[in-house]
């Protein structure tokens, strides 16, 4: 009687597959441990303990300080700082990893670390200061050292990407409402004590309402002249109470009636005028043409 070979062959295949599976699983675990072991940390800080950070990377020195739960721009505490920005910088600085740590390296000047190109200074709440210095470039990497340890690492140049910032990147600008002919109810302009009103309920003002609505809809608060203007400096922009033009627009949003008050100041000499929203300290520049439309001027 012939023996059935099918079950035996299947059993053999299953055994082989199990051996391969467990072999690969063991290899992957070893690789994970190897990679974990090879991770070299340049900084290993608890970001929640960091209270100040200063860095000089691209566009000059940038410095931020934390009081309580709030971050401030060190040079101007009134600067409208977007909190998520310094938080992201701190997170990047707290955990910098290296590609490798140099063993028995040369003196720091051999790597350009005696006079660093870039630096990051991190201060913790207990007063501890950690300074990360970046020396010469090796192509895709930088030579790096921490404080006066003398230890040299190579770090990917991409580590600096988070620090290549300008002050404008950190600004929390004012939110300007969406206004157009479909939702503008009324615009009241006050200039030199004289008030002009354009009302959407007035059938004789259809053209005027369309014109001023078009102007209001074209306003874009993106170009900043001053992030935190002092009251004493308002006159320089023509935005002091005696000089400015006040525009108060009543509009609807989701069927609710809202009001936006904006001040228009003098020209900047380049085809723009200075503008600011009521309650804000940011002075913007918008084109004179847009301002003329807002004011229904020729």
UniProtKB/TrEMBL annotation:
A Pfam family: DUF4340
Top-level taxon of origin: Bacteria
UniProt entry keywords in alphabetical sequence: Membrane, Transmembrane, Transmembrane helix
Residue ranges annotated for the DUF4340 domain, each copy included: 71-206, 207-288
Protein's name according to its UniProt entry: DUF4340 domain-containing protein
Transmembrane parts of this sequence: 6-24
Membrane in keyword set: yes
